[in-house]
């Protein structure tokens, strides 16, 4: 079951449960609980989406959204070099990159993949975070990642560079799922898994249908 960080009943121990953290703040494992008088809860749901919005995979993190948990999840979804994408965009991509370098897993990922951050994170961190600015830029203008930047034209015909992909697609999916949180957090684990998987399945079918409709409209024009 899900519960907001820090949410508890008056009789429950305050230190028990998920580790409340800022979205891009370093993680620390929560302290051991002094008792186990309440049911265990998962910290969050993690999703992997294609840039078009299609959901590729999802899982639950029990204690925190740590870079190590993210790397382990990515390793299960993309076990071989052939299956790994060229770019993986994560809101805390700079932390994941630093952790991968520190624990040695970057030796595997660097052969195929580059970790980048979403546009919102980059805007907030590009001034003070050198690692984020140098290695995780989602739209570098120096030509180092031509697949991330495309040429577009405004209404006056003037050329400008823009991001080739929507880096906020997972955040947009999370915002949509947030509308069901009051239902999900009261479900048993089995019902939770079934409901969430079904919702993501139908969401993916809806995204694919929209793409087909868009393609049909373009062909008619």
Which helices and strands occur, and which strands form pairs?
Layout: E1 44-49, E2 55-61, H1 67-77, E3 87-89, H2 93-103, H3 106-109, E4 114-116, H4 119-125, H5 130-135, E5 149-153, E6 159-163, H6 169-177, H7 181-184, H8 189-220
Parallel strand pairs: 3-4
Antiparallel strand pairs: 1-2, 5-6
List the defining traits of the structure above:
38% helix; 6 strands; 13% strand; 221 residues; alpha+beta
Description:
Strand 5 (149-153) and strand 6 form a beta hairpin. The radius of gyration is 20 Å and the shape is globular. It is 38% helix and 13% strand. It has 221 residues and is of the alpha+beta class. The protein is built from eight helices and six strands. The longest helix is centred in the C-terminal third of the chain and has 32 residues, at 189-220. The protein has one domain (44-220).
Run of helices and strands: EEHEHHEHHEEHHH
Structural class: alpha+beta
Instruction: Count every helix, treating DSSP H or I runs of 4 or more residues as helices.
Output: 8
Secondary structure: helix percent: 25-40%
Give the number of domains.
1
Task: Give the termini separation.
Answer: 48 Å
Largest sheet: 2 strands, antiparallel
Order of the strands making up the biggest sheet? 1-2
List segments where confidence is low: pLDDT < 50 over at least 5 consecutive residues: 15-19
Q: How would you describe the oligomerization state of the chains in this entry?
A: single chain
Count of β-strands: 6
Radius of gyration: 20 Å
Beta-strand content:
5-15%
**Which term fits the overall shape?**
globular
Region (Disordered): 1-31
């Amino acid at each position: 079951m899900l519960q907001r960080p820090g949410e508890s009943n008056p009789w429950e121990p305050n230190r028990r449960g998920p580790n409340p953290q800022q979205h891009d703040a370093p993680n620390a494992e929560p302290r051991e609980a002094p008792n186990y008088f309440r049911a265990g809860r998962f910290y969050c749901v993690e999703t992997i989406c294609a840039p078009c919005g299609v959901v590729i995979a999802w899982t639950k993190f029990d204690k925190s959204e740590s870079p190590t948990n993210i790397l382990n999840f990515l390793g299960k979804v993309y076990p071989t070099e052939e299956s790994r994408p060229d770019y993986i965009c994560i809101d805390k991509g700079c932390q994941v990159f630093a952790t991968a370098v520190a624990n040695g897993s970057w030796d595997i990922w660097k052969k195929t993949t580059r970790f980048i951050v979403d546009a919102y994170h980059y805007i907030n961190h590009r001034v003070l975070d050198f690692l984020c600015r140098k290695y995780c830029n989602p739209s570098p203008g120096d030509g180092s990642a031509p697949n991330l930047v495309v040429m577009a034209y405004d209404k006056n015909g003037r050329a400008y560079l823009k991001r080739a992909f929507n880096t906020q697609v997972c955040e947009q999916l999370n915002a949509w799922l947030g509308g069901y949180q009051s239902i999900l957090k009261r479900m048993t684990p089995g019902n939770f898994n079934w409901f969430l998987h079904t919702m993501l399945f139908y969401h993916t079918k809806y995204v694919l249908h929209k793409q087909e409709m868009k393609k049909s409209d373009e062909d008619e024009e």
